[in-house]
Amino acid sequence: MLNLKQPAAGIVATAIVIAIALEFISLFDFAAFTGWVSYFLLCVIPMQIIVVVIWGCRHPDFAAERSQPAKGVLLTLITLAAGVIVAPLYMEIAGGGVNPPTPMLAQCTIVSVVVTFFGSIIWGGYPFKLLIKNAVAAGLTLLAACYAVNYLLFRIFFDYGFMQGAPVYVPSLDPHGMFNALNALVFYVTALGGMFLMLHFDLWPLTKFPAIMKQPVLGLVWTAVALVIGGVVFYLGVTMAGMDVMAFLVRFPVPFIFGTIIVLNMLQGSLFAKLHQPAKGVLNAIAAALIGTALAQVYGALAPSVTGTLSAGPPAYDFEVWLASSLLSVTFPFLIFHAEFFKLWPVKKPE
User: Would you say residue 2 lies in a domain?
Assistant: First the structure.
């Protein structure tokens, strides 16, 4: 065991995980990676969120009571098992059983991650943690509720009319919702970035108002703040600046979210831990943006070696889909596995 201290431990661990993730991605061709592989891992992430946020990696007992690395292995197997159960179910419900996974199913699954983050972090598992005293049951009920709410919102908001005539368009799976599906997808992810921005600030300035810091008021206010942040950033980048929506996705919200996981989880907030809010939040957010952007550039530069030459831009957006999938569908959960399930073992000694 190296037993490094932060931030060195986080830097070394991040480098190791990224190397493993890129090697994993290289095992698959583009179609397989952006199809079944990414889809399955996206089905794993919501359960991963439940284990980390709702259970605090303290449940179930048979896993939580073990020492490392057994604890990390068991928690990882639990989330993978959830993915094995969810993937075929959601494929039938949201994907109509069409094989390989359609863009409709892929995007519905992506936003299920966003909804689960909101339900777990912003809403703190409310009302299920309040109503169900058994932590495992509360977490699983929340997970099921998030999938149900996500599917309902997907049917309301997503429209794939722009894809009519394309080989991947399946008319029966098009919800014919309120917004262009790509715009809706990118707005979701950008709003998630708004949620993470608030985490950099430890919810400052909301913490100055005790009445706000209780559920369900906190959930309502924090949701509104995240949506406003996401809406403003989306408007500035896509509407005012005229950026292609998928180019905007991989240039701003995706790198920021990725960088946030490194700053807050891998480095455990150690970069500016001695500072007070709001200075701490400002510097953490800037660090997340810079680190995420730099690593996104590295991934983009390595794409030809890892997967092959990919075309950017419409109509297929192969490069953008690959980059977003590589960062958030693969490396993101791999980082969380190591940071939260294994507590950076063996790079850092368990506390």
Answer: no
Question: How far, in Å, CA of 89 to CA of 95, rounded?
Answer: 9
Count of other CB atoms within 10 angstroms of residue 148: 12
- The CB density around residue 128, as the number of other CB atoms within 10 Å, is 20
Task: Read off the amino acid at residue 7.
Answer: P
Three-class secondary structure of residue 176 per DSSP: coil
**Chain center to CA of 203:** 19
The count of other CB atoms within 10 Å of the CB of residue 53 is 19
* pLDDT digits 0-9 by tens, 256-266: 999 999 999 99
Residue 133: DSSP 8-state: -
- Whether omega before 333 lies within 30 degrees of 0, making that bond cis, reads no
The whole-number pLDDT of residue 349 equals 81
Domain, as residue range, for 150:
8-341
**Residues 351 and 85: beta-carbon distance below 8 Å:** no
- Report the amino acid identity of residue 32: A
Determine, yes or no, domain membership for 318: yes
Structure confidence by residue, pLDDT tens digits, 262-290 = 999 999 999 999 999 999 999 999 999 99
Distance CA 239, CA 109 (A): 26
Cβ within 8 Å of residue 317, ≥6 positions away: 246
Is beta strand 179-180 parallel, antiparallel or unpaired with respect to 158-159? Answer: parallel
CA distance 75 to 335: 14
C-alpha to C-alpha distance for 268 and 6, rounded to whole angstroms: 8
Q: Please tell me whether residue 68 adopts helix, strand or coil conformation.
A: coil
* Residue 31, both tokens: 């179609």
How many structural domains comprise the chain? 1
Residue 347 domain-assigned (yes or no): no
Q: DSSP code of 266?
A: I
Structural domain includes residue 1: no
Phi-psi region of 127 (alpha: psi -120 to 50; beta: other; left: phi over 0): alpha
The pLDDT of residue 3 is 85
In this prediction, residue 351 has a pLDDT band, given cuts at 50, 70 and 90, of low
61 Cα distance to chain centroid = 26
Residue found under tokens 């794993």: 44
End-to-end CA distance of the chain: 13
Q: Which helix (H) or strand (E) holds 44?
A: helix 38-49
